[in-house]
Specification:
Elements: H1 2-25, H2 35-49, H3 54-64, H4 73-89
Amino acid sequence: PREKLQSLLEACRLLEGTQIQSCQLGCLDVQGGGADHLLPGVILALIKGRPRQLFSTLAYIRRYRDPDRLASAAEYHFTTLMAAMTFIERLD
C-alpha cells in the first residue's frame, strides 16, 4: 500500500503545483489555494484521466496502510482523493 499511496500523493502534488503556477501567472482568479481549490482540480483530473482501478486502489490503501503512517500531507491528499471519488460516485 505504501507504493500505491506514494504514487497517488505524487499525482496530487503535481496537480497542486500546477495550480500554484497558474495562480502566480494570473490565469486563475484565486488567492492562496488549499483544499477549496485542490478538490475541484482533483475531481476534474479524475474525470478526464479516468484512472483504472482507482476505487480498488483507494480501498486497498485504506484497508492495509497503517493509520499511524497515514499522517500529515499523506492523510490530507488521501482524504482529498477519497472526497473526490465520493463526489464522482454520486454524480447524476
